[in-house]
C-alpha cells in the first residue's frame, strides 16, 4: 500500500478506514522500542510470517508494520515499534495510550517462511524485531528447523533480542560493519558451509540490506534470499 493519500481520497474510504483496534497494553522495551498490544476482531485476518498490516497514522499517511504475536480466538495481537523520531508513523505511535483506537488493515504481503526449509538466517535492525519474533515463533513449533539472527542495533537496544526470547543471535553496533562489503564477507556465517543453502531474510536499512545481499551473491550463499528494506536515510514513508 502506498504511504500517503490526499485527504479527500481518504475521506472517500472513511467508512472502511475507521478505527477497528483498541490499545490495551504498552510495554517500553527501551527508550526507542515499544511493544503494544491491540484488541479487535481478527477472524478475517490471515497472518503469515512476512505479511504486514497498514496503520493509518494521520489523515493522509499510512505505515506498514509486522505483527509479532497474535491470538485470533482471543482477538489480540502485538506489534513492536521502533520510535526513532522525525516521522509521522513513530510520532503517532508514541502518542498512543491504553484505550485509544486505531485503524489496522488486514495483513498482506510476501510469505518468507516455509515449514519444509531446514535453515533460516535473519538480518535486520530495530525495525525487524517484529518479523524476527514472528519467525522465531514459527520455528519454535518446528523441531526440524534452525535459525541464526544477526542484528545491527543502537547500544540502548542490544538486550532486546534476549528480552523478546530470540535464540542464536549475534548483535553488532549499528554502523560498524554492514556498510562495508569486505567486513560483511569476513563474518562467521560465510566461514560455515552449513549456512550456504539456508534461506536468508534481510530487512532494515536499505543500504545494509543491499550490501549483505551483494555479498551473498558473490559468495554463492543462500538457497533463497528474501530482502525488504524498511528505511533509508532521508527518505520518507518507505
Describe the structure.
The chain is an alpha/beta fold. Helices cover 20% and strands 33% of the residues. The chain is built from 6 helices and 13 strands. The strands form 3 sheets. The protein has a 5-stranded antiparallel beta sheet. A 5-stranded parallel beta sheet has the order 11-10-9-12-13. The longest helix has 14 residues, at 206-219. It is globular.
Walk me through the topology.
Layout: H1 7-12, E1 21-30, E2 33-40, E3 51-56, E4 62-65, E5 67-71, E6 76-82, H2 88-93, E7 101-102, E8 108-109, E9 119-124, H3 129-140, E10 146-153, H4 160-163, E11 169-173, H5 181-185, E12 199-205, H6 206-219, E13 224-231
Work out the strand percent: 25-35%
Q: What structural class should be given to the helix and strand makeup?
A: alpha/beta
What is the number of E strands? Answer: 13
Strand order in the sheet with the most strands: 5-6-2-1-7
The string of secondary-structure elements, in order, is: HEEEEEEHEEEHEHEHEHE
Report the uncertain regions: none
Residues in helices, as a percent range:
10-25%
Given the C-alpha coordinates, what overall shape results?
globular
Sheet of most strands: 5 strands, antiparallel
Amino acid at each position: 500500500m502506498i504511504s500517503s493519500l490526499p485527504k479527500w481520497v481518504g475521506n472517500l474510504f472513511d467508512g472502511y478506514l475507521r478505527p477497528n483496534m483498541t490499545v490495551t497494553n504498552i510495554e517500553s522495551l527501551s527508550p526507542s522500542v515499544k511493544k503494544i498490544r491491540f484488541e479487535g476482531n481478527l477472524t478475517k485476518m490471515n497472518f503469515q510470517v512476512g505479511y504486514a498490516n497498514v496503520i493509518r497514522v494521520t489523515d493522509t499517511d499510512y505505515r506498514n508494520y509486522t505483527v509479532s504475536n497474535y491470538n485470533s480466538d482471543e482477538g489480540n495481537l502485538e506489534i513492536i515499534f521502533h520510535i526513532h523520531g522525525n516521522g509521522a508513523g513513530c510520532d503517532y505511535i508514541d502518542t498512543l495510550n491504553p484505550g485509544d483506537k486505531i485503524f489496522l488493515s488486514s495483513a498482506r504481503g510476501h510469505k518468507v517462511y516455509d515449514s519444509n526449509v531446514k535453515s533460516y538466517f535473519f538480518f535486520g535492525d530495530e525495525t525487524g524485531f517484529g518479523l524476527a519474533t514472528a519467525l522465531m515463533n514459527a520455528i519454535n513449533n518446528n523441531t526440524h528447523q534452525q535459525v541464526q539472527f544477526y542484528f545491527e542495533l543502537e547500544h540502548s537496544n542490544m538486550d532486546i533480542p534476549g528480552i523478546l526470547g530470540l535464540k542464536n543471535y549475534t548483535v553488532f553496533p549499528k554502523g560498524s560493519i554492514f556498510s562495508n562489503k569486505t567486513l560483511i564477507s569476513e563474518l562467521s556465517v560465510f566461514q560455515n558451509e552449513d549456512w550456504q543453502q539456508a534461506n536468508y531474510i534481510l530487512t532494515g536499512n536499505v543500504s545494509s540490506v543491499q550490501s549483505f545481499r551483494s555479498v551473498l551473491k558473490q559468495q554463492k550463499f543462500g538457497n533463497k534470499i528474501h530482502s525488504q528494506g524498511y528505511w533509508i536515510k532521508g527518505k520518507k514513508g518507505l
